[in-house]
Amino acid sequence: LRNNYGGVIQEAMLTASTLLRDPHSVLCYTLNSRGGFKPQENMEYIVDPKYPGYLLSSESSTVARDQVRREHPEYLEDGGWSSPTSYASLKELRMTRGIKPAHL
Questions:
Q1: What integer pLDDT is reported at residue 3 of this predicted model?
Q2: What is the rounded CA–CA span in Å between residue 85 and residue 37?
Q3: Using an 8 Å Cβ cutoff, are 21 and 57 in contact?
Q4: CA 56 to chain centre
Q5: Are 23 and 46 in contact (CB under 8 A)?
Q6: pLDDT along the chain (104 residues), means of 10
Q7: Is residue 74 exposed (0-12), middle (13-18) or buried (19+ Cβ within 10 Å)?
Q8: What is the DSSP string of 46-74?
Q9: What are phi and psi of 47, to 5 degrees?
Q10: What is the pLDDT at residue 40?
């Protein structure tokens, strides 16, 4: 998906977001024009109107969106989501967004 200009990465990330229940999971890191890594959070895609829901369990497909609605209802409003900055460090993400390392 490198050097993609046609929206393939966005569709792939939207699909991947249906496989992760935790809105704070980092789906991947993208490289910006200055060589910095930007985390792409699951929540960025959960609040997308095209998000079909969490599909990997017998839970309601709206379970991830419901969690976002409880924790950050403002993210579901028009213009409410702002992704982390391109220069956000992992420490900054843990402090400002409550993102925790994934546990296996």
A1: 63
A2: 10
A3: yes
A4: 17
A5: yes
A6: 66 88 87 79 85 89 90 77 54 63 62
A7: exposed
A8: HTSTT-----SSSS-TTHHHHHHHHH-GG
A9: -85, -5
A10: 84
